[in-house]
Amino acid sequence: MKEPVQNQIGTLLKASGNTLSAAESCTGGQISHLLTTVSGSSAYYLGSVTSYAVAVKEKVLGVSHRIVVEKGLVSSEVAAAMAEGVRALLGSTYSVATTGLAEGGDEFGNPEGTVWIAVSGPAGTVTRKYWCDLGRKANIRRFATVALQFLKKYIESSLK
């Protein structure tokens, strides 16, 4: 049986001595939950900001109000700003962020099940859009898993 992605990330981070943080909106702490199920994760996982409210994205993570208004909460730009904001706030080597719609659509035309994922690290910040239509709870679980898979690939490529 294949090792869960959160365990694989833990192995990479322990071996390299690097750290991780998360900024979650639509995943509501699911990424943090998965990461902390790994024994010894306190050696590399610094913590997270669950920024469900716009004010938290702006005040705590430093997401620009202009970007929120112009691009919408479910955008590459907001995801990137969240990842960069939590990385700076907690001083981690890497970070992962999610912003999306577990249910319902938005005024920017994003349908239910849309998520933007960002990862940030020494090589810069990259984003990815993902969509699934599994219902609220299953969407959240899937968003978290896809975000961790994206993060793992980023870490692997940066360690080469």
What would you note in describing this structure?
This protein has 160 residues and is of the alpha/beta class. The chain is 44% helix and 21% strand. Helix 1 runs parallel beside helix 6. The chain is globular and about 45 Å long. The mean pLDDT is 96.
Helix count from the secondary structure assignment: 6
The quaternary structure here is single chain
Main pleated sheet: 5 strands, mixed
For the largest sheet, list the strands in their spatial order: 2-1-3-4-5
Q: Cα-atom Rg, whole angstroms?
A: 15 Å
Helix content: 40-55%
Order of helices and strands: HEHEHHHEEEH
Instruction: Outline the low-pLDDT stretches.
Output: none
Which structural category fits the helices and strands? alpha/beta
Total DSSP E strands: 5
The residue-averaged pLDDT reads 96
Termini Cα gap = 26 Å
Shape descriptor: globular
DSSP strand content: 15-25%
Topology:
Blueprint: H1 5-16, E1 20-24, H2 30-36, E2 45-50, H3 54-59, H4 65-71, H5 76-90, E3 94-100, E4 114-121, E5 124-131, H6 136-158
Parallel strand pairs: 1-2, 1-3
Antiparallel strand pairs: 3-4, 4-5
Helix pairs in contact: 1-6
List keywords for this structure.
globular, 160 residues, 21% strand, alpha/beta, single chain, 6 helices
